[in-house]
Design goal:
alpha/beta, 10 strands, NAD(P)-bd_dom_sf, Rossmann fold, 9 helices, binds NADP nicotinamide-adenine-dinucleotide phosphate, Oxidoreductase htatip2, eight-stranded mixed β-sheet, two-stranded parallel ribbon
Length: about 325
């Protein structure tokens, strides 16, 4: 059984089996799966990056970030890195900073202007971006967790969907606490099936008065309104990891969660970033998308417990 605070060898075997089926499904359709990830330098993102590459399922994994990441795992030759200016990316997608016009300054030295070409040719996108209010302030938190996330989502969609979206109706299963799958055809959609996966948070709620969960809820709603063929929202509780960056309150919380989970065997308080990374990649591998269904809009929201449970279930035969 997956415990919240462990990485899982059992899951590794499930991922390997799912990766084989995934490759077969894409090969049969003559589609080359390529993944795009943002936030790969973070605690969750580095786990997702490792799983994406080591699964061998993707011909290319492109990391988009404000800096390059160091990667020493399997299939490193498939990793492409693009250092981009996120303010520029917001500008290009008309995402204004709350209460202030967009910056027009040139990108910082060493960054490239975010280019459509960098986003093209990808079938899957993973967003593990995030900051904290303590680190970036209220505006800075919203800028990263909402604006940069939406700029990334739009850049991925627009570079890979040849047709412009019209009024696509979101199937609304926002309040699901466990696995909730639905699909509905949309009027206008990509011809290549596109998967978008995002790390949100437990308690995400656009109508909450609390900045953190309100922002996460708002992002979820805006992503649901986009015509991705498949959208998966991960709502982890506390992230368990030996964080490089020192966050005092989080360290205290992680220790408390580890103790409670150990004593009571609970699954709703936390998850290791290693398991979360495995679950995020496994979710995509288990759902290879079909060209014929590119116009569908499947949306899934996974709670902390559902994320952990997903690693125990063998792939469908
Ligand atoms: N901490 C928790 O207990 C918890 C619980 C539930 C959900 N979450 C959510 O889970 C997600 C992942 O969290 P995490 O702890 O794995 O994240 P993390 O370790 O803090 O990493 C965040 C990523 O975002 C990037 N980033 C931050 N500010 C940026 C900026 N101004 N411009 C460009 N990139 C920026 C970081 O890049 P650099 O490396 O360059 O800084 C890094 O790649 C977040 O959305 C978080 O809100 C966290």
């Amino acid at each position: 059984m997956s415990t919240p605070d462990a990485s899982s060898d059992g899951a590794a075997a499930i991922i390997a089996a799912a990766a084989n089926k995934f490759k077969e499904a894409y090969s049969a359709q003559s589609i080359t799966p390529r993944a795009l990830i943002v936030g790969a330098s973070g605690e969750t993102g580095q786990q997702v990056l490792r799983e994406l590459l080591s699964s061998g399922a993707f011909a290319q994994v492109t990391s988009v970030g404000r800096r390059e990441v160091t990667y020493g795992g399997p299939n490193g030759d498939r990793l492409v890195q693009k250092v981009v200016d996120f303010e520029q990316l917001c500008n290009e997608h008309g995402i204004e900073r709350k209460g202030a016009p967009n910056a027009t300054a040139a990108p910082a030295t060493g960054t490239t202007t975010a280019s459509k070409v960098d986003f093209q040719g990808h079938t899957h996108a993973y967003c593990c971006l995030g900051t904290t209010r303590a680190k970036s302030g209220v505006d800075g938190f919203y800028r990263v967790d909402h604006d940069y996330t939406m700029a990334f989502a739009k850049a991925f969609y627009e570079a890979n969907a040849p047709t412009a979206p019209t009024a696509a109706t979101a199937s609304n299963n926002a309040e699901a606490n466990d696995v909730a799958d639905s699909s509905s055809p949309t009027g206008d959609s990509p011809t290549t099936p596109l998967q978008f996966s995002v790390v949100s948070s437990t308690g995400a709620n656009a109508r909450s008065p609390l900045l953190y969960v309100q922002t996460k809820g708002q992002v979820e709603e805006e992503l649901k309104a986009m015509p991705f063929t498949r959208l998966t929202i991960f709502r982890p509780a506390g992230l368990l990891c030996d964080r490089k960056e020192s966050r005092f309150m989080e360290t205290v919380m992680v220790k408390a969660i580890r103790s409670i989970d150990r004593i009571f065997g609970t699954k709703s308080l936390g998850i290791s970033t290693a398991l979360l990374g495995q679950a995020i990649v496994l979710d995509s591998l288990r759902h290879p998308l079909a060209k014929a269904n590119a116009a569908q809009k499947q949306q899934t929201t996974l709670s902390n417990a559902a994320i952990l449970d997903s690693l125990k279930t063998p792939p469908a035969v």
